[in-house]
Structure of ABC transporter permease:
Amino acid sequence: MKPTARTAALAWLQAAPLAAVFAVFFLIPLGLIGMVSFWQATDYELIPAFSAENYLSIFQGCGDSLVTAGQDTCVTLKTYASTLKFSLITWAVTAVLGFAIAWFLAFHVKTQGMQTLLFIVCTVPFWTSNVIRMISWVPLLGRNGLVNQTLLGLGLVQEPVEWLLFSEFSVVLAFVHLYTMFMIVPIFNAMMRIDRSLLEAARDCGASPWQTLWHVVLPLTRTGLIIGSIFVLALVMGDFVTVGVMGGQQIASVGKVIQVQTSYLQFPLAAANAVILLAVVLMMIVALMRLVNLRKEL
């Protein structure tokens, strides 16, 4: 065996376990979902077939609502619009918070030991499950919760604020709580790779802190920001537990629709919705990937 062939064989052998896991836990389930999305279903059984009826039923009426003035938007487009709204709001808030926290950790905490300690502090909420973290907001934001009691005690409101819980506000708040860490880590990693002499050069040239931030730090942390954005957008687009718990089962999202259809054993329709959602998320990721060459940057 030639050395090059042996090297290639060893490389394939090393990659085989990961490839097997990837195939078993991702490619095969994804293929099954795609296959089932073309099946038919009755109240009692799944019928193997190859029909686009599920996809057509999902978008039924959407074409007319787009071209006919005054007609209400179809349910599917409304649901996707709601999901995208939550995703973009969460992305914007987590990007600002993640950048600010990463900035503080990277440039204002001088010792590596303190950086590690503060990072551990940031990860403490992740030692519990997402559901527990979401439920922890209920005693704070509920009608008789700590926030309302404080506002009433200070005389700032005359009656409990209703929109703090089981509302769009509480859903976004929970998303930010759950996913900000996914933005902090890649941005912090990008900031730690910035050559500090560039910051000194900017200061020597008379740049203000904001100019240094805008013209030096932000472009050099673009890769981390894009990676964090991919994490946050993908997670929020597919989340249905947070929307259900914090929205009081009153707010629609694509993930929630899929969960409901699955509970009613409408597996082909749920699979078709999952394929559409996957396509939308992939398009968003591809668009973000075009903003930066990850292979070159990493």
